[in-house]
Structures are given as structure tokens and as C-alpha cells.
Amino acid sequence: MIEFSNELFITLVFLSLCVFMALIRVVRGPTAPDRVVGLDTINTIVIVGMVVFGAAFDEVIYIDVAIVYALLSFISTLFIAKYLEGGRF
Amino acid sequence: MVFEIIIYILLGIGVFFNILAGVGLLRFPDVYTRLHAGTKCTTFGSIFICGSVVLIGLKMWYQGSTDGSVLAIHTVGALLAILITNPTGAHAIARAAHRSGVMPVGAVVDDLQGKTVKKTGKKKTKGAKKKGVKK
User: Fold this and answer.
1) ipTM for the assembly
2) With contacts defined as CB-CB under 8 Å, which chain B residues touch A74?
3) Contact B79, B46 (CB under 8 A)
4) Fewest beta carbons within 10 Å, which of A13, A25, A56, B98?
């Protein structure tokens, strides 16, 4: 398991690099939908990172947390999109 | 040994596509092209990374640990959640961006100018059509 853990930790380093690049877009996006796009990308990468963490530490409960986080981030994305659209809720 | 090589290749493909999503999010000039990069590449990369985690779980299960099967099945559940929710969210963001008035970067004419009708406007057009038919 230890030699797998090294590979998975290198993967996690690159995934955190992706989160940092999306965070730059969230900070300096010109319009509001740009920031929402960056936030959606960060959510998906965090879900994948939780799955990789669950495999690296050999804990199944992290993957359940990832499933719940996926559904909640989907609801939050739909809510922000509805707010930008300007319609009634 | 072959199993480990397959796992490394799948992890490499997934990480490559996720980094491509980050670079595209930084370099593209427009909301819609950024959405294209940030959603599709992330979905495609997460398929491969979750596939490698499923293979790790199957290998653990083959070696005699019962935790491995639970790891594989729950990872498939997380992958299904990503595959269902990610394109739907991208569609909602694109529709919201178009309705809030953001144009593509080189666009001159908006073809969908009056075609995306909201719910309050839809009823009025229906009633007008019926009146026109009766007359």
C-alpha cells in the first residue's frame, strides 16, 4: 500500500495545482458568470481529490463525504445560476 | 505488475486532463469557452482517476481485504454523481450567462435574441396565438 500512496500523493499535488489555477480565475474574473465557472471547476476537482484521499489513506468514509459534497455543490451551482438569471425562485 | 502499470497510466491521463482544464480556464477569452474547458476536461479526467481508484479497490479485494470491494463500489457511486450533476450545472450556468447579457468575445449578432422566452412571457404569446387563430 505504501508504494501506491506515493503515486496518489503526487496526483494530489497536481490536483491542488489545478485548484490554485481555478482560484486565480475566481479572484480576477471580469464578470459574475466567470467566477461561477471557476467555482464549479473547484467543486469537481475537490470531489476527485476526496476520492483519491480515500484510496490513499484506505478510508471508505471519505468517499461517502465526496458523494454528499457532489450533490450539495450541484444544488448550490443551480441556485447561483438561478440568481444570475434574475427570475423568480 | 501489469495491474500497477494500468493504474499509473490511468492516473497520468486523469491528471493531464485536469491540468488542461486549469490552463484552459486561465487562457480562454470568454465565459462560454472557459465553461467548455472547465467542465468537459474535468469530467473526462475524473472518469480516469475514479477508474484507477476502482482498480486499486479491486486489487485490494483480490488480495483478501473486504474493504477493497466497498471502496470500488462507493467510488462508482461518486463517479455517477459527478457524471449526472456536472453537465447539468454547466447547462444552467451557460443559460444564466446568456440571459444576463454576456456576449461571446467576437460576436456581432445574437441569433437567440428573442427566442429564450421566460415563463411569464410564454403565456402571453400563447394567448395571442389563440386569438389570432379565432379571428
Assistant:
1) 0.86
2) 85, 88-89
3) yes
4) A13
